């Protein structure tokens, strides 16, 4: 079981932004996490990284998430114009960088619904590609809770469809973590993103955001073709996530350009 963590010990002031750094406001954030046998990730995660694992059903399992969001007002921090609205889906694995000891997420694949994908894909060689992403949301105007959260992705490599619900505010404990706060730190607050570039080198970039208001949600249906095709999570397992977190999001700063680290 991971060691207990407190937000008061890890939160920091936002580092100064400049140059190509980006500010965005993710909205309608959903983090669907699966616990999988570490062996399924063999060959996908470089030896520099250790998988973050948790104990479930007398086994040590790795954690990977499918994250959906809509980036509102995405713009350069230094020159806040123009502003873009971009839907995005990330597939990521939770890990630790052995060389620095930092918690991070390893990005397996990202789908973005915008012509702007050409910048990360071709300039920085991130594993991103374009797809069509559509959200169907129903929110209770009184409570702000999601009565319906549906999202469909049309993509050659990573078509997907999900539907979530939030009947009431759920602040229950999350399996395999000592407490809910520790789980939220691990699942929603890694500030380092790492990935294998399209030229096979390793890259990383840093982000900053405050603590996010996330509650638990229920899953009605999930179909992630990328997870099934890669053998990471089959169709039946996709209907039984480790956890689902949902919330309005917060303001992010992304520090660019990414570094090459190999």
Describe the 3D structure.
This protein is mainly beta. It has five helices and 16 strands. The mean pLDDT is 93. It has a single domain (7-130, 169-218, 246-256), classed as Acetoacetate decarboxylase-like, CATH 2.40.400. The strands form two sheets. A seven-stranded mixed beta barrel has the order 1-4-5-6-11-12-16.
Task: Record keyword descriptors for this entry.
262 residues; mainly beta; Acetoacetate decarboxylase-like; seven-stranded mixed β-barrel; four-stranded antiparallel beta sheet; 16 strands
Summarize the structure.
The protein is mainly β and 262 residues long. Helix content is 11%, strand content 48%. The strands form two sheets. The chain has a seven-stranded mixed beta barrel with strand order 1-4-5-6-11-12-16. Strands 8-9-10-14 form a four-stranded antiparallel β-sheet.
CATH architecture group name? Beta Barrel
Which CATH class applies here?
Mainly Beta
**Considering DSSP H and I runs of 4 or more, what fraction of the residues is helical?**
10-25%
What is the total tally of β strands?
16
Major sheet: 7 strands, mixed, barrel
Task: Count helical runs.
Answer: 5
In total, the number of domains comes to 1
Q: The CATH topology is what? A: Acetoacetate decarboxylase-like
User: For the residues shown, what is the average pLDDT?
Assistant: 93
Residue windows where pLDDT falls under 50 for at least 5 positions: none
Gross geometry = globular
Note the run of SSEs as H and E: HEEEEEEHEEEEHEEEEHHEE
Rounded to an integer in angstroms, the radius of gyration calculated over CA atoms is: 17 Å
Strand content: over 45%
> Separation of termini?
31 Å
């Amino acid at each position: 079981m991971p060691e207990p963590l407190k937000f008061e010990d890890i939160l920091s002031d936002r580092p100064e932004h400049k140059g190509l750094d980006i500010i965005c406001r993710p909205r309608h954030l959903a983090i669907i996490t699966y616990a999988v046998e570490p062996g399924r990730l063999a060959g996908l995660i470089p030896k520099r990284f250790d998988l973050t694992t948790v104990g479930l059903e007398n086994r040590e399992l790795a954690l990977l998430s499918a994250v959906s969001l809509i980036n509102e007002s995405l713009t350069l921090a230094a020159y806040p114009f123009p502003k873009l609205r971009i839907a995005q889906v990330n597939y990521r694995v939770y890990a630790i960088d052995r060389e620095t000891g930092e918690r991070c997420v390893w990005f397996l694949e990202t789908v973005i619904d915008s012509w702007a994908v050409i910048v990360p894909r071709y300039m920085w060689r991130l594993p991103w590609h374009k797809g069509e992403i559509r959200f169907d949301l129903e929110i209770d105007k009184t409570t702000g809770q999601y009565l319906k959260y549906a999202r469909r992705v049309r993509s050659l490599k990573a078509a997907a469809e999900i539907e979530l619900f939030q009947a009431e505010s759920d602040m229950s404990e999350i399996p395999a973590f000592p407490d809910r706060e520790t789980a939220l730190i691990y699942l929603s607050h890694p500030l380092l993103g790492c990935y294998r570039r399209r030229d096979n080198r390793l890259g990383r970039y840093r982000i900053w955001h405050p603590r996010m208001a996330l509650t638990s949600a229920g899953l009605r249906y999930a179909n992630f073709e990328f997870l099934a095709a890669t053998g990471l999570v089959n169709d039946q397992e996709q209907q039984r996530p480790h956890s689902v977190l949902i919330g309005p999001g917060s303001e992010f700063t992304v520090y660019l350009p990414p570094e090459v680290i190999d």
